[in-house]
User: Fold this.
Amino acid sequence: GMGLAAAHCFADDGARVALIGRTRDVLDGAAAQLRDRGSPDAVGVVADTADEGQVQQAFAELSERWDGQLNILVNAVGPSVRGTF
Assistant:
């Protein structure tokens, strides 16, 4: 989606990129793509962005990993629809 496309652009420029999502396998594959494109420290962190505690924990992990440095945030969370159709 749009978030991964933005991450590819940053990786192409050699930026450190982190992805946050719910599925470890998907994150690992995307992080590997980003490392191949030039982001040597690309990482995926598992968190459900609908859960504030998980988001806080994800950012705490990234803050520790990168000495508290965050320069750009791209929020590309898709819609969440609950209920029956």
Q: What stands out?
A: The longest helix spans residues 24-37. The radius of gyration is 13 Å. The mean pLDDT is 92. The chain has one domain: 2-65.
